[in-house]
């Protein structure tokens, strides 16, 4: 891994965003195909993540943070339930729009003042996401929209909490260990009929143990190198990467809209990350 702080932050961020996009693809495979019900998916996802992260607690501190665990379970449950009634484009706009509002708003309250060039980069990146998602957007189901907004807020708070951690691996493991029993409790209290197929269970395990568990460790490792604003903006790349992953792994069509929207989003992120003035990517 590069030793220079900026190079290390950029490299870790890229790998993390790839993990997040992989998480979206696994969730789409499981939930859109109705291979598993949302609550079972969430419970298996968090439980497998907790088991996979147990080795990270063998040595060193154990930073238990109930608030982080609560917002993690809130995000995971709301996200899965929302995608039962929302299409991918509508869900992406609601989720990432709320994440932007939550994290950038927090940064402004804490005194971050993005430069005009950084604000321009943010606007370009947001435009790219809108162009990517808008043709698939329909009038959202009210329940689904509220759930996805809640998921975006919870993920924004979870990310903000991670900026202050000094032991990212142990903190993530603790968060999953606390969140997993809560997910099982929600599944039990819901008393809903479970839909379990082998592919759905395997998708949930893969998501929990790799793209969620290990991906979230990387995210918490990366966050101290970001301001709240830049941590919010870089996540706008996830819908683009996930869409490209859909072309590669799911046989979806590569369109001129995807290419154009991807260029806008990634270009805007680059402008925002490299802009001078205000608080920079690496503090």
Question: Any overview of this molecule?
Answer:
The structure is a single chain. The chain is an all-alpha fold and 283 residues long. It has one domain. The chain is 74% helix and 0% strand. It has eleven helices and no strands. The two termini are 19 Å apart. The C terminus is likely disordered.
Indicate the topology.
Blueprint: H1 5-32, H2 38-53, H3 66-82, H4 88-109, H5 116-133, H6 142-162, H7 168-190, H8 198-222, H9 228-234, H10 237-249, H11 256-274
Helix pairs in contact: 1-8, 1-10, 2-3, 2-7, 2-8, 3-6, 3-7, 4-5, 4-6, 4-9, 5-11, 7-8, 10-11
Mean pLDDT, to the nearest integer, reads 88
Largest sheet: none
Unreliable parts: 277-283
Number of domains: 1
Helix content: over 70%
Structural class of the secondary elements?
A: mainly alpha
Rg, alpha carbons: 18 Å
Percentage of residues in DSSP E strands:
under 5%
| Count of strand segments | 0
Number of helices: 11
The H-and-E topology, N to C, reads as HHHHHHHHHHH
Principal-axes geometry comes out as globular
Distance between the termini: 19 Å
Output the keywords.
283 residues, mainly alpha, disordered C terminus
In a few lines, what is going on in this structure?
The protein has 283 residues and is an all-alpha fold.
